[in-house]
Design a protein that fits this description.
There is one protein chain. The protein has 430 residues and is α+β, with helices and mostly antiparallel strands. The protein has eleven helices and 13 strands. Among the domains are: 42 residues, no CATH class; 254 residues, no CATH class. Helix content is 29%, strand content 16%. Strand 7 and strand 8 form a beta hairpin. The chain is extended.
Length: 430
Amino acid sequence: MSLKRPFDDSTPPRARPLPPPQKRYRLQSSDSFSSSPSTATSSSSLATPGGPFSTPYTPPSDSPTNPFGRIRKLALNGSEPLALPRATSFSKHLPLRFQLIRIGGGADAIGEGTYRIVQVPLNYTFRHLHKLLFFLFDDSSSTHSELRPDLQLETGGHLFEVQDSIRMYPTKNPNALSRVGQIRSGHTWAKLSSVRDPFRKRKIRDEDAVEDEGGEGEEDWIWEAEEDFTVGHVWPEGGDLKRGCVYHHTPTTQIHITINTTRIPGRKGVGNKPFVFGAFGSGWAPLGERRLLGLGLRGLGIRGIGVDEEGGEERIESGRWNGHEAFEKFLRRDKKRENLRAQDHRSPSSSPSPSPSSSSNPIIPHPPTHPHPHPTQTPLPQTKLHRLRVQYASRRLERLTKKGLGELGEEVGFEEEVDGDELGEEGEVC
């Protein structure tokens, strides 16, 4: 049996150094990358163009459009159409009834009036809902005819009223069929409008003033943003019959949005598009300018019978709304129309003409022949909402800068005072 060696007589063996982690080995000098082509490729792809440094982190795939604003999902890029949200299970879609109401237009009502029964995803924002109303009720021949800029100034623009504790008109009386789907009364607890919201259209003078005024006054309702408020906020517990919305299109045209109570078939799967089960009427154009149409889907238990010029029945194809990418195509067409209207409002004389000396200067490039060239300088905000948010951010930065300079001045004054006291004490000691 061998005796144990005393601790003092022997020196501890030199420990073998542990290999560095794989990640740390990859971040060493550039000589270590020459042995592996794959690592060299990854290093070059991560190198920044401003210097020889590299980072193992990938650049973020998304970033806030404006970190200083109060509305985080505001779409400032007006060149892209409105994108649909992620697909969800059909169990998270609500069957809604969109009933067209005409103030003082009782003579136009035939049967149950003009309506649409649509299954809408709960994650649709009110921007999607606003576009959906045009998709369902706007005739192709009179697209946005009632939303011209001059008419918006006269009527104030559209408005959504979110209500609870609603009461519907009774429908048991056969003479009251024209009031099916109409909200008789309700308590408004939220309003939404991209043109009436005071946070959007008023000139922001101070951040505290915006928070104090808010736009609600003494009312018990609040303003909500169309980009953030969803259908799920209106019906958080599913098909609550006591909740609904009133959409004001014009002073004489409304659309009442409630939970559908008629029988519809079940659907299985996932999706992010609206699905129309039944409809009657062609749109929100006056009766003298439209021809009543109806949509009837066989086997769905919903009748959508329209009347043609000869008094007979007429059916229209469901592919008008339920076709492949029908809603996406409508959003793209609508965005093109908005861009064309924005270009029409711009004055052609406002574009500066090139100076005569620019053509002879070889440094200044010649103006391109393309009608829409890319600007050589960052353009100013074009939309009123964009200008409002930039002004809001700049004012906030100015306040923060003044506050920081004031605190810095106080600290400098305090340090000078302390230094003066210390010098005085040292003079007394001497």
